[in-house]
Amino acid sequence: MGAYVGRVSKREETGQRTTALIIALALALVSGGVAVGGGRASAQSTTTFTTTTTISTSTTTTSTTEPAALPSPTVTIAAVGDTELGNTPTLPSDPGAYFRPIEHALAAPIVFGNLEGTMTTATTSKCHAHATNCLALKVPPSFARDYRAAGFTVLNAANNHSFDFGEAGALSTTAALRAAGIAQAGLPGEIGVVRDGSLRVAFVDFAPYANTNDLLNFAAARQLIIRAKREANVVVVYMHAGAEGASADQVTKREEHYVGEDRGNPFAFAHAAIDEGADLVIASGPHVLRGLEFYRGRLIDYSLGDFTNYDDFAHDGVLGLSCILHVTLEANGAVASAHFTSVVLRGVGQAFVDPSDAAAHFVNSLSREDFGTAAAIIEPNGSIARGR
User: Residue 132, class by beta-carbon neighbours within 10 Å (0-12 exposed, 13-18 middle, 19+ buried)?
Assistant: First the structure.
């Protein structure tokens, strides 16, 4: 990941172009020091950008041609919900093939998902020897490479399974992701920062647990969002929040609980996150899709559902509906465009694009019911627009 200093500025417009200006621009572009590029750079770019640079001009030319306007940089993010590729020893024979049917639809410069479980060889789990109804998830550390090969660049660790195998499991997961070139976000104080061209994107992830960035402690959450805003152009907040199950598909706008746990108030937290500077809020945890809302011009997806699960979670009925959310954001965080791809889980929990768009129809009904005129509506072509 290349270095970055300051924000990219717009080129100063002048009414006259001079020989000195042309020479200065040519030298600056060769050195990579002036932020005047035409359009978004590639995700692999390692150009170093400086703070605002002022170029002096003179009046020795008679040209009055106006320079062409340059497009502002944007960044496109693909986001999915809960992912897990089995639980040792029950694992797919070819984990890399598990994402293959969906890779083309998942493609984006930055791809985010929630990693449900650990990547470790540790053997001591949170489940006691005679525990019932206790699930501790782990896959081999080598599976991190399969996530990266599928396109994932950021994975979330703020959930109820990140410490299934204690601190040893969490440390092993972090090391595996780092070795594969995947950023991690969500452990206490942890912000995942990735870059697409000239823009830095910070992922600040939360769950209702003290061993993660804690969404139940909003004073601390607020400071983390503010810090992320200083470190990046665009801030994405993820929340692992809300009740679970087929009946948990609606945003209640109240504190939600599951198996005796306080899972937060997703509606209040999402709005507060945007008030503090978040540009996009995404979520999972309920294991079912929830609605979409625009708030203060920013998009909120209250649950992306399950994206892949290898024989560990139910995926019948609405629990088998999923999605891929693509959002393109401008450098100031404004939504340039957004797109929803309907996905369905088949077999033992493998994701496939669903041409029937069942997920989109389901989410639209939830969005209208839960948010009224603030609903974000998925059009027949998958684009997302403000409700009417």
Answer: exposed
For the chain, domain boundaries: 1-66, 74-386
Q: How far apart are CA 250 and CA 369, in angstroms?
A: 9
CB of 331 within 8 A of CB of 8?
A: yes
The SS3 of residue 60 is: coil
pLDDT recorded at residue 176: 98
Residues 6+ apart with CB under 8 A from 277: 225, 226, 228, 229, 235
The pLDDT value recorded for residue 66 is 60
- Tell me which fold the domain 74-386 belongs to: Purple Acid Phosphatase; chain A, domain 2 (3.60.21)
Q: Nearest to residue 242, comparing CAs of 164, 300, 174?
A: 300
Integer Cα distance of 38 and 73 in angstroms: 8
Please count the CA atoms within 13 angstroms of the CA of 47 that sit on its side-chain side.
22
Q: Could you tell me which residues come within 8 angstroms of residue 16 by beta carbon, excluding any fewer than 6 positions away?
A: 57, 59, 61, 63, 64
The structure's pTM equals 0.82
Nearest Cα to Cα of residue 282 among 259, 267, 302: 302
Determine the angle formed by the axes of helices 266-275 and 218-231, rounding to 10 degrees.
40
With the CA atoms of 225, 227, 230 and 231 taken in that order, what torsion angle do they form, in degrees rounded to the nearest 10? -100
Dmax of the chain from CA atoms? 87
For residue 283, which of 305, 255, 307 has the smallest C-alpha distance?
A: 305
Contact 49, 31 (CB under 8 A): no
Question: Which two three-digit tokens encode residue 87?
Answer: 């639980």
Bridge partner list, 240: 284
Distance of alpha carbon 6 from alpha carbon 329, whole angstroms = 18
- Residue 235 pairs in a beta bridge with 202
**d(Cα 207, Cα 324) in Å, to the nearest integer?**
21
Q: Phi, psi at residue 202, to the nearest 5°?
A: -105, 130
Q: What is the pLDDT of residues 102-124, one digit of tens each?
A: 999 999 999 999 999 999 999 99
| Alpha-helical runs (H) found in the chain | 19-31, 95-98, 103-106, 143-149, 166-180, 218-231, 266-275, 358-371
Tell me which residue of 183, 188, 180, 142 sits closest to 163, measured CA to CA: 188
